Amino acid sequence: MTRLYEVTQEQRYLTLANYFVEQRGTEPHFYDIEYEKRRQSYHVKPSGTPWMVENKAHSQAHLPISEQRTATGHAVRFVYLMTAVAHLARLRQNEQQRQTCLRLWQNMVQRQIYITGGIGSQSFGEAFSSDYDLPNDTAYAESCASIGLMMFARRMLEMEVDSRYADVMERVLYNTILGSIAFDGCHYFYVNPLEVHPKTLRSNGIYGHVRAVRQRWFGCACCPPNIARIFTSIGHYIYTPCSDALYINLYIGNRVAVLVGEHTLQLLMSGNYPWRDEVEIAVESAHQSSTRSPCACRNGAARRRRP
Question: Which of 89, 122, 130, 267 has the highest count of CB atoms within 10 angstroms of its CB?
């Protein structure tokens, strides 16, 4: 809805998107109302309370989003939701939504993220656990969750330009996301643990979600097409354009032309990062005698060497 609003500038789309976010976790609860309606319609009492009704935190619906303090529940759903909230906060210039994004981002990246950028440490519910509960061998760290984290980081960068979001984006891309696909482009990891003992996997049930090698496909096939999607849309993540500057988030070889102010800024980025620690950024714009094409890199320099 937010993207539709950006294309059409029709306020109703932005209003509807905001309604969906603001209604989450409010009382009377949508899940409870629907559950009662369906029970009455079918005249049959289910054998047990549905998961969505019993465990609302799994879908981040246990509290209004403005009252939530920790990253919780299904990791993929969490980062998808927060991507939308960050987008709304920027479009609506809403300080409360901005503070919600900052608070939940901070909890996630300070207390519930692996060194690889993986999130969602437990296989039960593909979910976050508690602060600092980040086991290496039973880590879930779903590939889709890392992709969602990149999406969240991108919207945070658009909301406020800060290199900490780009740093997380870079960590996720070069570790979990790239590591989840084989060189042949046909085999994938759904789960990305930091430690695997192949012989133990066959005999210990706590590793039932772990695979020692990348798989050709999955019964729940969300990760392979999601990985393909992030690669084909990577151009949206390399830069954050602003009204008077172009910020560089990822050091990936490319050529780009964007409108900055009243002029077109053309850049060529080249190098062999991360295998070599030097990236060159050349400004290819036509010379403007009265203006200077602005370009702000994450380290403030046109040539960057990693420490």
Answer: 89
HEC secondary structure over 137-199: CCCCCCHHHHHHHHHHHHHHHHHCCCHHHHHHHHHHHHHHHHHCECCCCCCECCCCCCCCCHH
**Residue 290 and residue 305 share a domain:** yes
Q: Are residues 103 and 174 in the same domain?
A: yes
Pairing of strands 246-248, 239-241: antiparallel
Question: Per this entry, what is the length of the chain?
Answer: 307
Give the list of residues 6+ apart from residue 285 with CB closer than 8 angstroms, or none.
Answer: 263, 264, 265, 266, 293
So which residues are the catalytic ones?
A: 126, 222
The CA R_g of the chain, rounded to the nearest whole Å, is 22
Cα–Cα distance measured from residue 65 to residue 84, given in angstroms and rounded to the nearest whole number: 12
Q: Find the distance separating the first CA and the last CA of the chain, reported in whole Å.
A: 41
At residue 122, the 3 state secondary structure works out as strand
Of 200, 233, 266, the domain-final residue: 233
Token code pair at residue 176: 């979990």
3-state helix vs strand vs coil in the chain, percent to 5 = 45, 15, 40
Cα 149 from Cα 127, distance rounded (Å): 14
229 and 104 belong to one structural domain? yes
Please write the tens of the pLDDT for every residue from 86-138. 999 999 999 999 999 999 999 999 999 999 999 999 999 999 999 999 999 99
Domain that holds residue 307: 238-307
60: its two tokens: 């981040």
Express each pLDDT in 135-144 by its tens digit. Answer: 999 999 999 9
Helices 143-159, 95-111: axis angle to 10 degrees equals: 140
Shared-domain flag, residues 171 and 299: no
